[in-house]
Design goal:
- The protein is 43% helix and 15% strand.
- By secondary structure, the protein is α/β, with parallel strands linked by helices.
- The chain has 2 domains: 239 residues, Alpha-Beta Barrel (TIM Barrel), CATH 3.20.20; 52 residues.
- The strands form 2 sheets. Strands 1-2-3-4-5-6-7-8 form an 8-stranded parallel beta barrel, surrounded by 6 helices. Strands 9-10 form a two-stranded antiparallel sheet.
- β3, α3 and β4 form a beta-alpha-beta unit.
- The longest helix has 18 residues.
- It is globular and about 75 Å long.
- The protein binds glyoxylic acid and magnesium ion.
- Magnesium ion binds next to α7.
Length: 317
């Protein structure tokens, strides 16, 4: 986990809008995805491919992860999207996002196309990752195979709007809690996606929240998936970025505590510390399982470039 790049906020940018593409470069999101799918009208897609290639080649993205979302394999656009984007800007691209993934075969098809394009364009084979969006009932029942379908898989992403349509959900408030349902209607879906991602060792990303002016509601929804272990969330509006960056990173207190556990456990298990398998850190008993939990929190904090505000001192005597 410690080596994963931070994806707390993933900013959606319509490829058909050059002004938004330019503006996105300066925003503090960990990741951007330049969209050729649902935020681009069919007639605007050919122009959007060109805008995206130009924006990637111009640079100025800092250390953001640069992803392009292509259209899904049931359309007539996918292969041209991939060929134009990778052929035109493959060296400036980190991953392709594949929406509405139905099964492992769709991931493998993209993997093969990417391999050919990398070879044809003198790129290192395997350098472009795949982000798989789960947004249909079919995708969810196949999510475990999808997660293992290619070594390129970097994230499994929840797409609540398409998902709610796919399962005939009654509410139209995407991703939000609903007064007619006593619990969290998305818990099951989020957990399935999280299990598949964790079993495969990749990141789990929560999807969009459409009421873009209601930041407190965004925060409430984001806290739910962050609590479960999700690594980040889409942001559709600059106003959602800071909230996502804060919510998907550990709090300073939790980060400091995790680093302390790691140091204290290291010390306790060492020769000097008495080769102990469990030890006390203040009032808390820690052991190997505590170390594993602490590694997750510390990994997220380190990926987000957090700094420690305390240090470990071995106990006297
Ligand atoms: C995102 O693509 C969604 O459908 O929610
Ligand atoms: Mg969608």
């Amino acid at each position: 986990m410690a080596e994963l790049r931070s994806r707390r906020s993933n900013l959606a940018v319509p490829g058909s809008n050059p002004r938004f593409l330019e503006k996105a470069k300066g925003l503090p999101a960990d990741q951007v995805f330049l969209d050729l799918e649902d935020s681009c009208a069919p007639l605007a897609k050919p122009g959007a491919r060109k805008n995206i290639v130009a924006a990637l080649n111009e640079g100025g993205w800092g250390d953001k992860i640069r992803t392009v979302r292509v259209n899904d394999w049931t359309t007539q656009w996918t292969y041209t999207d991939v060929i134009e984007v990778v052929g035109g800007a493959g060296a400036e691209l980190d991953a392709i996002m594949l929406p509405k993934v139905a099964d492992a075969g769709q991931v493998q098809a993209l993997d093969m196309l990417l391999t050919q394009l990398e070879k044809a364009n003198g790129l290192e084979v395997g350098r472009i990752g795949i982000e798989a969006q789960i947004e249909t009932a079919q995708g969810l029942i196949n999510v475990n195979q999808i997660a293992f379908a290619s070594p390129r898989i970097e994230t499994i992403i929840y797409g609540p709007a398409d998902f709610m349509a796919s399962i005939n959900m009654k509410s139209l408030v995407v991703g939000a809690l609903h007064p007619d349902y006593p619990g969290d209607p998305f818990h099951y879906i989020l957990m399935q996606i999280l299990m598949a991602a964790r079993a495969r060792g990749v990141q789990a990303i929560d999807g969009p929240f459409l009421q873009v002016r209601d930041v407190p509601a965004f925060e409430e929804v984001a806290r739910r998936s962050a609590m479960l272990g999700f690594d980040g969330k889409w942001v559709l509006h600059p106003g959602q970025i800071d909230a996502a960056n804060e919510i998907y990173a550990p709090s300073q207190e939790d980060y400091d505590h995790a680093e302390l556990i790691l140091d204290a456990y290291d010390w306790a298990t060492s020769e000097a510390g008495g080769k102990k398998g469990s030890a006390m850190l203040g009032d808390e008993m820690i052991d190997e399982a505590s170390r594993k939990m602490a590694l997750v929190i510390a990994g997220k904090g380190r990926a987000a470039a957090m700094q420690r505000t305390s240090s470990f001192t071995p106990p006297e005597g």
